[in-house]
């Protein structure tokens, strides 16, 4: 069976693609402007998008930031099919999902759209409208558990930056709407156009890792023990240095056993595992942003050899360092032919 992806219905040269962005009181501003900027930038590099903003009654709305956002038309005036419908989110999603008129507007817009895409907590609106039943979906990592609990028929992927399931696309927190829009640009006009947009906006073509893979050092709870804080900072600041347990103990002037106990009690892992996570993060940054060879990256980040680095990448990320670097040449949308996919690395 030959599955079509969103965007296969129309290609460059057959007329502009219509993007409809639905707004409502309390909408998060970046959820709206992030995707719009991507589509507007794409028009400078060969894309052909026509963006329109719709609200329930056609009136301007006050965003969660307190700014006013004008609408171009009412939901009832959206008669032509939308190639892409964008449903943003808002911090007051718990109230929004109880608004029957709002959910009805979402259903009507979706019925007239070839692809419906949500940003951040916009996934809750789609789920409450019954549009994600039986589908895979993503939302902000902080709200993933709530989405799964409130809507058990939705298969939530908590670490995905965005997920595509048929004609539905859902993305993670706030700026992930930019990732999603870039994926759609690549789908419609190819990787070269999407790459030009990403470069123009100074963003990744495909963001490093999933949304749970934040800075290793920043995830460690603050400790009142200066000795431990100093050890953690030393590893983060110079991952290529000697960070064996004995070396850390010697520098701190405490026993190896005490170092191990500090890590176990306050970091929740062993010193070796923590060091490996920091080195993995440092290697990812070098692969994403530079052109150093794999042996050089391995040496600079403390892995020592490309093979050691390769084992760590495969174990924790499921890809080799070489494949990881290649992933930044594309948003990832063209790497699979299935109708459903997620992007998270």
From TrEMBL:
Mind telling me which Gene3D superfamilies this protein's record contains? 3.40.50.880, Homeodomain-like
**Matches recorded under Pfam families:** DJ-1_PfpI (PF01965), HTH_18 (PF12833)
Q: Where is the HTH araC/xylS-type domain?
A: 226-327
UniProt keyword annotation of Hydrolase present = no
UniProt keywords (A-Z) are: Transcription, Transcription regulation
Q: What is this protein called?
A: GlxA family transcriptional regulator
């Amino acid at each position: 069976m030959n599955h079509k992806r969103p965007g296969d219905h129309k290609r460059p040269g057959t007329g502009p693609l219509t993007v409809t962005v639905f707004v409502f009181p309390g909408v998060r501003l970046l959820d709206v402007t992030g995707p719009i900027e991507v589509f507007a930038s794409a028009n400078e590099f060969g894309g052909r998008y026509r963006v329109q903003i719709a609200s329930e009654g056609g009136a301007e709305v006050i965003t969660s930031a307190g700014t006013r956002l004008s609408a171009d038309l009412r939901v009832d005036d959206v008669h032509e099919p939308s190639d892409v419908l964008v449903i943003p989110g808002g911090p007051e999603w718990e109230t929004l999902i109880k608004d029957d008129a709002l959910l009805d507007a979402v259903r009507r817009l979706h019925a007239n759209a070839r692809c419906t895409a949500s940003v951040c907590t916009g996934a809750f609106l789609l789920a409450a409208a019954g549009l994600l039943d039986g589908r895979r979906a993503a939302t902000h990592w902080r709200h993933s558990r709530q989405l799964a609990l409130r809507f058990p028929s939705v298969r939530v992927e908590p670490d995905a930056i965005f997920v595509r399931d048929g004609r539905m696309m859902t993305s993670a927190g706030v700026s992930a709407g930019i990732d999603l829009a870039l994926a759609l640009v690549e789908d419609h006009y190819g990787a070269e156009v999407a790459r030009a947009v990403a470069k123009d906006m100074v963003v990744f073509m495909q963001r490093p890792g999933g949304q749970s893979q934040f800075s290793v050092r920043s995830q460690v709870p603050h400790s009142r023990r200066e000795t431990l804080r100093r050890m953690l900072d030393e590893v983060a600041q110079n991952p290529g240095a000697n960070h064996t347990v004995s070396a850390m103990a010697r520098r701190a002037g405490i026993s190896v056993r005490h170092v191990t106990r500090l890590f176990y009690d306050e970091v929740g892992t062993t010193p070796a595992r923590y060091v490996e996570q920091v080195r993995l993060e440092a290697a990812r940054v070098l692969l994403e942003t530079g052109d150093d060879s794999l042996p050089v990256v391995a040496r600079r980040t403390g892995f020592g050899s490309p093979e050691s680095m390769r084992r760590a990448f495969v174990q924790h990320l499921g890809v080799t360092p070489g494949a990881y670097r290649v992933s930044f040449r594309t948003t990832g949308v063209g790497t699979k032919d299935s109708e459903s996919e997620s992007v998270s690395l």
